[in-house]
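Quarterly update, task 2.4: histidyl-adenosine monophosphate-bound model.
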Amino acid sequence: MAKLVRGFKDIIGAQAEILTELESSARKIFKLYGARELRIPTVELKELFVKSTGDSTDIVQKEMYAFEDGGGRTLALRPEGTPGAVRAYIENNFTQAAPVQQFFYIGNMFRAERPQAGRYREFEQIGAELLGNAAPAADAAAILMLADIMKEFGVRNYGVKINSLGCNDCRPAYRRDLINYLSSGKETLCEKCKDRLERNPLRVLDCKIDGPRFAAAAPAQKLCPACAEHFEEVQKLLRGKIDFEIDNSLVRGLDYYTRTVFEFRVGDAAQNAIAGGGRYDGLVKSMGGPDIPAVGWAMGAERAAAARAAAEPKKDFIVYVASMDKTCNEIAFNIMQALRGAGIAAQGGLFDKNIKAQMKQADKCGAAYAVIIGGDEFANNPAALKNLQPGEQKRIMQAALVETLKKI
Ligand code: HAM
């Protein structure tokens, strides 16, 4: 039998609709902020990700779907959107003509991670990249844009963590302090962290095993005056607008970040980041462009959708129409059409089945109400209107059905 590849998924019906709804919410907010859409290829040269996402990251080390094409080039399915967005920004000459740009993208990303709940090998990201603005106002606007999308879409049960990673002036000293501190406990580090210690010591603080043991006593980040002022200003602009928490152990898993980093998280589960991002002032230059600052984020669409579904399991308002016997089929059918005509989602019409089978189907499709036509008093034109959750049933005249359901 044909089989789905492990770690990939089919997205069907309501699951697809909720993603479409999220995309619409995001598009509405992007418009308010003046962000323009960027559609970039799914495939880039592998080299692009090695150089930008970073060759010390888990993504590049072991999660990329890389392959050779017929022309002997090594390509990769994009594991994230930022490198392609920056490449497009440089290649399309925005850096010269119009360096201040706000882009957004919606697209599928690929990471060969170990599949588990909330972690897929193909997933959708909705992302924004604000290029050409070094001011703390850009960091704050990026974060608030993300919060506005969550609000518009209806995710409320999240927390925001922010941190500053400093810049090339102040980070090296911090890195050194951290390596010294962690080296004293080197033998007790997990295998991954032993390997990370020299390459990317900040990531040890982010490790699920070693992070909690080492984070509390870790040397504090010493920001240079310019970075400290920038971080303070970002906080000032956010205060009173959203709740956030400063978390010095927030380091993010990609190499290009400088200064502000942030994550939106739901609960304490392992895969709890619904979105993450930060400033990456050195990336445009390191990819061959001029020295242009930038800040951005990406949201995991499936995770954001799951966060909303978990908080408020919302059933679609569907009315199921059933007919008790053959003589009522036409009336039942007409009522079903009248409901649809009035803008109420109606399902049913399984009239060749008995009433028990029809009600079973009503349950299966998640209907909120059922309209049952027929039975003893059929001559007087009533219908039974059944609220399927508490299971209450009342009789109502057929002529009043549409208006009653509209009010509900
Ligand atoms: P990231 O933290 O690697 O950042 O990914 C952003 C979000 O994508 C995560 O918070 C998570 O919700 C979702 N995500 C990541 N991996 C998976 C997966 N395997 N399955 C499901 N969802 C996943 C970036 O990708 C950066 N490009 C963000 C950014 C943009 N920074 C600056 N600009």
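Highlight for this quarter: DSSP finds 16 helices and 16 strands in the chain.
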